[in-house]
Amino acid sequence: MNPDELRRLIVRHRHVAPMLSVLLAATDARVTITDADGEVILDRQIGAASAIGAAERYPITVEGATVGWVEGPRPSSAIAAVLSYAAARETDKRALAREALDRYRELNLIYDLAEEIGATLEVDAVAGVAVEEAGRLPTGGEGFIVLRDGPDGSQLDDGILGAIFAGDAEIVNDVGADPRASDGERSMASVVAAPLRARGERLGVIGTRSSEPREYHASDLKVLSAIASLTAPTLAQAAVHQAAVVAAGRGSSDPGD
User: Fold this and answer.
1) How far, rounded to the nearest angstrom, does the alpha carbon of residue 40 sit from its chain's CA centroid?
2) From start to end of the chain, where are the E strands?
3) Sheet (strand 40-44) strand order
4) DSSP 73
5) In the chain, N or C: fewer CB atoms in 10 Å?
6) What is the pLDDT of residues 64-108, one digit of tens each?
7) What are 32's strand-pairing partners?
8) What's the predicted TM-score (pTM) here?
9) What is the C-alpha to C-alpha distance for residues 171 and 192, in angstroms, rounded to an integer?
10) Alpha-carbon distance 28 to 175, whole Å?
11) What distances in angstroms separate CA 110 from CA 24, 38, 194, 244, one per listed residue?
């Protein structure tokens, strides 16, 4: 919780502010509430000067981190405890709201991507749509796809991408420090990638890379994995379709027909 959020909680929250007034009314001593940097949020100066000398500081904490302080006589510890509880509740509510928003965005992504890639049965077109979506991760970066049977398929023989192709989706925020990185992969500073799997068959890897250091998060990996899960079966279907078209074309050119 940042200082502005703590200030709003203490001064304007429709439940916390009245409750804090009741707690302060229970003591006639001076009570001062500050943020973690010492900026005063509330300074109740009713008490006598002698009460100031006996003041103690009690932390307002959220998830083990100190976000503010309550300074005053011993009853101030109760105020700090109440504010810690209220701050934690607000933080949890914001986290739930962000999670709901992320899920809404992910659903929209899935619907849009399914509609786009479902409109074509060409491998290059499906891959192009998937790469475009992979380049729209919240943290940023450039989308890419490497197919096992494509011109760049040798990239999947070793290195980080080879490990992801053979294993699971992964975030590597410091490619240079990863002992698996191949010489070619060291042009990337950070990467997040997921294997493309359809009916147990591994088709390739889709990911987002950056030449500048970035801090990819679990939310980025989650979105990318959703893209991979939609792209892989469509790629497999497109490959079968293209092979059938090619075979049909060869058959129609047979002189025996």
Assistant:
1) 33
2) 31-35, 40-44, 56-62, 65-72, 142-147, 170-172, 190-198, 201-210
3) 40-44, 31-35, 65-72, 56-62
4) S
5) C
6) 899 999 998 877 888 999 999 999 988 888 887 777 666 666 666
7) 43, 71
8) 0.59
9) 4
10) 59
11) 51, 46, 16, 28
